[in-house]
Design brief:
The chain is 40% helix and 13% strand. With 241 residues, it is of the alpha/beta class. Strands 5-4-1-6-7-8 form a six-stranded parallel beta sheet, with helices on both faces. The radius of gyration is 17 Å and the shape is globular.
Length: 241
């Protein structure tokens, strides 16, 4: 699930129709402003359900509104329901709820266990960038919250699929590139945009992970940061980094 309220809260239908290589100008400007060392490996990681527990935070928020999330599929639209009646919340109301959730709860999300320690360990061998689908105006709050949880890395506020953004960064690095995300469409987009990228399908919430299974284009699938760190370390060892 994504942190950004999409035009259609069904994450699959909203993203599948997009150009996997498209890069918005405001995203390109953020990437071009990064200080990337060409000789160092690069780890590009999503935030929600990779670094922060998005689903648990959303469920906590919904409960305060008398709502609950029925995890029948990897989507929000059609799955948010009234606690008392089980009536499905309309798509328009889901949009409004998500906007309020991001405004009030972004900095309340709990970190994914082990994420900060794993990234700290990997930062000795690689540079790390957080590529997250949040509105540009929420970028500062997201970066501040990550820093408060000992994940003080550059943050790029992306829009749409992430293939174009990862390719833009990878073109500046002459070393292995790794990408972690919970959305299969993003994994597929990066696979198309930068074939050499090591793709980790990471879903922290095991309920979501069991719904999805491994993304078809991923090289590794996990809900555990120790496993992810070991996979990345092994690939770096094999590449001489």
């Amino acid at each position: 699930m994504s942190a950004t309220p999409p035009a259609n809260p069904n994450m699959h239908s909203a993203m599948a129709v997009q150009d996997p290589l498209h890069l918005f100008d405001d995203v390109a400007e953020q990437i071009d402003a990064l200080e990337l060392a060409p000789e160092r490996p690069l780890i590009v990681t999503d935030c929600d359900e990779v670094l922060m527990q998005f689903l648990v935070g959303l469920e906590t928020y919904l409960a305060t509104k008398g709502l609950w999330l029925d995890l029948r599929s990897f989507a929000l639209s059609g799955n948010i329901k009234q606690l008392e009646s089980n009536e499905v919340v309309s798509t328009d109301k889901v949009q409004a709820l998500l906007k309020d959730f991001f405004a009030t709860s972004t900095e309340k999300l709990l970190p994914v266990p082990g994420a900060a320690d794993a990234l700290q360990s990997l930062s000795d061998r690689a540079q790390i960038v957080v590529l997250t689908n949040v509105p540009l105006g929420d970028k500062t709050a997201r970066a501040r919250h990550l820093a408060s949880e000992n994940m003080n890395y550059p943050v790029i506020a992306n829009r749409g699929l992430k293939g174009g953004a990862v390719r833009r960064m990878a073109e500046r690095v002459n070393a292995p590139v790794f990408f972690l995300d919970d959305i299969p469409h993003n994994i597929a987009a990066v696979a198309k945009a930068h074939e050499a990228c090591h793709l980790l399908h990471f879903i922290a919430d095991k309920r979501l992970a069991s719904l999805m299974g491994a993304a078809a284009d991923s090289h590794f699938h996990t809900s555990d940061w120790t496993e992810a760190r070991n996979f990345i370390s092994d690939q770096l060892d094999a590449s001489g980094f």
